[in-house]
Automatic annotation (TrEMBL):
The chain crosses the membrane at residues 6-24, 31-50, 62-80, 129-152, 173-193, 205-224, 236-257, 263-285, 297-319. The lineage of its organism: Bacteria, Bacillati, Bacillota, Clostridia, Peptostreptococcales. This is Transporter. GO terms for biological process: transmembrane transport. Its main location: membrane. Keywords: Cell membrane, Membrane, Transmembrane, Transmembrane helix, Transport. GO terms for cellular component: plasma membrane. It is found in: Cell membrane.
């Protein structure tokens, strides 16, 4: 437990570095886009390649566990999505669009951008591998299920035409760099293709930088938040607590009673403890929804996760 606590502390020290750097104007908000591009297009793909292709051997249950995590995670996202929609309707002082935005903020989780570094640094390679698998389900729900949630209560668009889920929405999760790396890495893993050691060593070194850079980015973003404005919005606080307390609790209870090995239970439960996904802001912008509210929801949940995430990591590591 002490080892876990020290690793969690290191993660949050990285966040503190980003926060202080922002406050001292060493790294301002305009640096975030470039750092995110670096993480999403270079360091995270390298981290994934090493996590997947760097496995020295494939256990007999690796493929079946992969399918179990994807299917179970999708089912849980659908259930949690339904719950988040029901709860969002309690925010009577918000418009329908704003309720939909908050429902998305409640169900999405930053299990990739924030989750991969934490899974790797705190729990190691095996949990990172299965976290990568879980994130596939997360992305599928994010780009399909959340698109439906954002448009609930609206049958027509601004031109009067009935709204449908476009082909582009369905294929979008499969067009980004990370997804392409997923697919290629799994093909290499299950076909027995080995990457030369010098290349793998370079990939590993680059991938390891994902951990500090990702956390520093979160620190920079928190440094630019108007905390006073955030903490006065009760709906934002409630939606964040649903994301960070209710849904992780339901996830832990669910996996506790399932006949799965502890690594799978830990991975699935851990994946639902993270704050709202930053990609939710991009989705809201694409659907012409309230991006300001979505940004505030992401910021609030990220800020509160500084308290809840270490607690959940301790609980989950003790249970599983």
């Amino acid at each position: 437990m002490q080892v876990i606590a020290s690793k969690v502390l290191v993660i949050f020290l990285y966040i503190a570095v980003g926060f202080v750097a922002n406050k001292l104007r060493v790294l301002e908000t305009d640096a975030v886009d470039h750092l995110i591009a670096l993480v999403l297009n270079i360091t995270t793909p390298c981290l994934l390649i090493y996590s997947i292709c760097g496995k020295s051997s494939i256990r007999a249950d690796t493929f079946s566990n992969t399918i179990i995590i994807i299917v179970l995670s999708i089912v849980m996202f659908i259930v949690f999505g339904t719950i988040s929609v029901k709860i969002s309707r309690l925010f009577s002082n918000k418009t329908n669009d704003q309720q939909n935005v908050l429902s998305v903020a409640m169900v999405t989780c930053n299990s990739g951008f924030m989750g991969f570094p934490i899974a790797r640094s705190v729990f190691g390679q095996v949990v990172l591998y299965y976290s990568v698998i879980q994130n596939i389900a997360c992305n599928l729900y994010l780009f399909i299920g959340c698109m439906i949630q954002l448009n609930l209560g609206e049958s027509k668009d601004s031109s009067g035409k009935s709204k449908t889920i476009s082909k582009e929405t369905i294929i979008k999760p499969f067009k980004n760099v990370v997804t392409i790396v997923y697919i290629c890495s799994f093909l290499a893993l299950f076909s027995g293709i080995k990457i030369p050691t010098p290349v793998m060593d370079s990939i590993s070194t680059i991938g390891d930088t994902t951990i500090p850079i990702s956390m520093i980015i979160i620190g920079i973003q928190l440094g630019d938040c108007n905390f006073r404005a955030l903490i006065t919005d009760k709906d934002l606080i409630l939606s964040s607590l649903v994301c960070l307390v209710l849904e992780p609790t339901l996830a832990v209870i669910t996996v506790w009673f399932l006949p799965l090995n502890n690594i799978l239970k830990l991975t699935i439960a851990l994946s639902f403890t993270y704050p709202s996904a930053v990609l939710g802001v991009a989705l809201a912008a694409g659907e012409h929804k309230d991006t300001k509210l979505m940004s505030e929801a992401v910021a609030m949940s990220t800020m509160l996760s500084m308290i809840t995430l270490p607690i959940w990591i301790m609980i989950i590591s003790h249970l599983f």
